[in-house]
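Worked Example 4.2. Consider the chain below.
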Amino acid sequence: MGRILAIDYGTKRIGLAVTDPLRIIATALTTVAAHEAVVFIKEYCSKEPVDLIVIGLPIQMNGEASESEKHIQPFMKHLKTALPNMPFTRYDERFTSKMAGQSMIDAGFKKKQRQDKKRLDSMAATIILQGYLQSTQ
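Applying the procedure from the previous section yields the following C-alpha cells:
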C-alpha cells in the first residue's frame, strides 16, 4: 500500500504532508516554494510509493469556492500533466490554517516558532490529510 500525499496550496508556499505506508498517521513533510512544488512532488513520488494526492479545497462559509481556487486549478492541471497516472481528490480545507496555529499553541511552540509560515503551511497540510483519513474510515 502506498502513501497518501496532501497539499495545502498557497500562491507563495505549498505545505505538504504524507501518511505512513499503512495510512494510519499523517505527518508534515515539508513546505516548498509554489514555483518548485510540481518538480518536488514528482520527484518525491518517484522515490516513495504514493497512491493518492489530496489537494485542499478552499470553500467559503456560504459553500462557494474561495478566491484562491482560481490559482489552485492551474496548479492541479500542471500536476496532473506531470503525474498522469496519479489519482487526485479534493478535501475541504476550511479553518485548517487556524487549526494549525492552535495546534502549535497546544503543542507548546513559542511565539517565534508559530510565526514560521513554512511550519504553519505543512501543519495545515497535515490537518487536511488527517481530516481526509478520518472521512474515509
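The longest strand covers residues 26-33. Helices lie at 37-47, 69-82, 96-106, 111-114, 117-135. Compare this with Example 4.1 before moving on.
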